[in-house]
Amino acid sequence: MSAPLGPDAPSPLVCTAPPTRFFGYYPGTVAVVTAAADGDRNVMSAGWHAALSAEPPLYGVAVAPERYTYGLLRASGAFAVHFLPFGRADAVAGAGSLSRHEGVDKFAALGLAWRPGTKTPAPILQDAYLAYECRLQNALPTGDHTWFVGEVVALHYRPEAFGERLMQASERVAPAVYYGRATYEALGAGERAVFPPDAFRERA
To answer: HSE of 144 in the Cβ direction (CA atoms, 13 Å)?
Structure first.
């Protein structure tokens, strides 16, 4: 077993406890969430989201109660999580900047074509390379957000965005990664490395 460094050993890390500012959860992929209820609909950006289970397929997203989509999601019991390519990073940013509370139809303002979900009322964005259509299973208060857990009842994707073994073909459809402060980058041009699991088992 390896031993920890001593308290006097130099470290490249700076520690602030408690944290004076919560940052560093980017870069990452920002999802675009839709929901609809009672003839109304909305789209929002969500930086905090995650796959939770393969069987049953569950996906989670964090939504603050003051967001317009929060009420639609609660009322309909459904939502859809989308991933848009870098070519529509403007829509990802706009969905997080404009507000339905101010009367803005973000679908029209951002040029987002959509159609109703196949299993739920949630709008499915046609620019997405991948979308999870979800039926709400649980809602967990987590600080200043609520963590909505949805069962994925339908999967929508663009075949050209994926290659062998359903790995994302970023050279054909580049995902957008978010750095914070309104800054996005196209993935796919950087270095790639493969680390087969057997190589680690041989070293252990």
So the answer is: 2
Q: Which domains does the chain have, with CATH numbers?
A: 31-188 (2.30.110.10)
Please tell me the distance from the alpha carbon of residue 198 to that of residue 195, in angstroms, as a whole number.
9
Q: How many CB atoms lie within 10 A of CB 146?
A: 18
Q: How far is CA 7 from CA 10, 11, 13, 25, in A?
A: 8, 10, 13, 27
Q: Is the pLDDT of residue 45 over 80?
A: yes
Span 146-170, average pLDDT? 95
Distance CA 29, CA 142 (A): 21
CB atoms within 10 A of CB 179: 11
Query: 19 pLDDT exceeds 90?
Result: no
Task: Specify the amino acid at residue 166.
Answer: L
> Alpha-carbon torsion 92, 34, 146, 64, what sign?
positive
* pTM for the predicted model, two decimal places: 0.92
